[in-house]
Design brief:
A 13-stranded antiparallel beta sheet has the order 6-5-4-3-2-1-13-12-11-10-9-8-7. Strands 14-15-16-17-18-19-20 form a 7-stranded mixed beta sheet. It has a 4-stranded antiparallel beta sheet with strand order 21-22-23-24, with no helix packed on it. It is α+β, with helices and mostly antiparallel strands and 445 residues long. Strand 11 and strand 12 (237-247) form a beta hairpin. It has 3 domains: 2-36, no CATH class; 48-275, outer membrane lipoprotein receptor (LolB), chain A; 285-441, Ribonuclease Z/Hydroxyacylglutathione hydrolase-like (Metallo-beta-lactamase, Chain A, 4-Layer Sandwich), CATH 3.60.15. It is built from 12 helices and 24 strands. Bound molecules: zinc ion (ZN). Zinc ion is lined by residues 346, 348, 425-426, 444.
Length: 445
């Protein structure tokens, strides 16, 4: 049965028949053949073996992971007037060129995202995005003579390359992934190193879903899910006409595909500065702003407050290692005191990635009440890809929610934490005021 199904697919495959014919074969194969390998069928339908590179052009919407209006609404959504991905499967390299445009009320977005919020982001963003990845290197071209190395973007760009239909099928074949037939198609699961991939094929033999997970400091093993719909023939290439990518459950790309070309010439050359890039050492600089109160700089801004018998930090940096450097600096400035509280102004990932490092030290997280559920959920995700101190030591987080105002006091100094109202940047922000010393701390407004 297996052989006859494969033979049928071969006889009427894309080389011998029209591509539309190949689709019919795929549907027959999956419904009639108990043992047919759907990965092979999809590979034939899409001519995967003979596709060394692909260029995908479209438009739609882009979402910024970790920048959300509230912890229950999607990542900020910005329209994309043109999107072009070139994937070089032979070299394992990719290039994305994107133009983003000003959001309007007419955009098809979740109405919970107000326009003022989206426009604030658009004003902040560069409209053009020129992003590269080659093997384990990633970089952005900011201007013709300005390159920014992005080691923090390697995992997601590699996952994106492998989550294109041709990329996924090539990867599955390379790893001899097993196909599991289901009532309406089939699926496959396999590992690439420590990274898991899952793909689902429909009854027509088309790949309709890819899932994989990458590490994100706030979300742990973060699910990246790419959905493919409405396959069409573009310039002889069978390809989905709609692609939706969700990261951590919210859209990061929603594309209508207007053109696809296979075997386009690609040459992604790694710039010398990317090749030779060395991560700069973390250097935390302190400035005393009032007795027992320091402004800590170095990448991001953090406030350290020395209380009678403990320390309070306001704000986290992006990740565990740089926050650990902040904590070490705090212990150097005010020795012998435990970290009891960390105040988080808002849950954007550039302010929240390091919170778990404080919590691992025993700190209680002081945050707007609306964010508690978000952190409880995010922090209960598995952390197999990059365990941190909190997951390794099974630390249970403690929260102090701010409904309106919370005051932390040691009997001498008090710290007032206020819930803010009507901020465009994020709906669930807090700000901090120290009556002694008259220090006010507000972020991103
Ligand atoms: Zn922010």
């Amino acid at each position: 049965m297996w052989e006859s199904c494969r033979a049928l697919a071969t006889v009427l495959g894309p080389k011998q028949a029209s591509l539309r014919g190949a689709v019919i074969v795929a549907a027959l194969a999956l419904s009639a053949c108990g043992k047919v390998n759907g990965i092979d069928v999809a590979a034939k339908n899409m001519n995967v073996a003979d596709t060394n590179s692909i260029e995908i052009v479209g438009n739609g919407m882009w979402g910024w992971v970790g920048q959300q209006y509230s912890s229950t609404t999607p990542w900020v959504q910005i329209p994309v007037s043109s999107y072009a991905l070139t994937a070089d499967y032979t070299a394992g390299a990719s290039h994305v060129l994107m133009t983003r445009t000003e959001p309007t009320e007419a955009d098809d977005v979740d109405k919970a995202q107000n326009l003022a919020f989206r426009n604030e982001y658009f004003d902040f963003l560069r409209p053009y995005l020129d992003e590269y990845q080659s093997g384990n290197l990633a970089w952005n071209v900011m201007a013709p003579d300005r390159i920014r190395t992005r080691p923090d973007r390697v995992d997601e760009r590699l996952a994106a390359l492998r989550s294109t239909p041709h990329g996924f099928i090539k990867l599955a074949l390379e790893h001899q992934a097993r196909f599991r037939k289901t009532s309406n198609g089939g699926d496959t699961t396999f590992m690439v190193g420590d990274q898991k991939y899952y793909g689902r094929f429909n009854a027509q033999g088309d790949l309709e879903l890819v899932q994989t997970w990458i590490d994100y400091p706030v979300l742990g093993d973060m699910l990246i899910e790419t959905q493919f719909e409405d396959y069409k023939i573009y310039d002889g290439v069978r390809f989905p006409s709609r692609i939706t990518e969700l990261s951590g459950g919210w859209p990061t790309l929603r594309l209508n595909i207007t053109s696809v070309r296979a075997n386009v010439p690609v040459s992604v050359t790694v710039p010398e500065e990317v090749q030779n890039y060395q991560e700069p050492p973390i250097n935390i600089v302190s400035e005393l702003v009032a007795p027992g109160v320091w402004h800590l700089r170095g990448g991001h801004n953090v406030l350290l407050i020395e209380m009678a018998d403990h320390l309070v930090f306001v704000e986290a940096k992006e990740a565990e290692d740089d926050t650990q450097a902040v904590i070490a600096k705090g212990k150097e400035l005010a020795p012998g005191k435990p970290v009891r509280y960390v105040v988080s102004t808002h849950p954007h990932f550039d302010h929240a990635g390091g919170l778990r490092a404080y919590v691992a030290e025993g700190a209680t997280l002081v945050t707007h009440a609306a964010n508690v559920e978000f952190y409880q959920k995010a922090w209960s995700n598995p952390r197999t890809l990059k365990p941190d101190a909190m997951s390794r030591n099974n630390v249970e987080p403690k929260f102090l929610p701010v409904e309106d105002k919370v005051t932390l006091s040691d009997g001498h100094r008090s710290i007032d934490v206020f819930a803010m109202r009507n901020a465009h940047h994020n709906d669930d922000m807090v700000m901090v005021y120290l009556p002694t010393g008259k220090v006010n701390w507000a972020t991103d407004i």
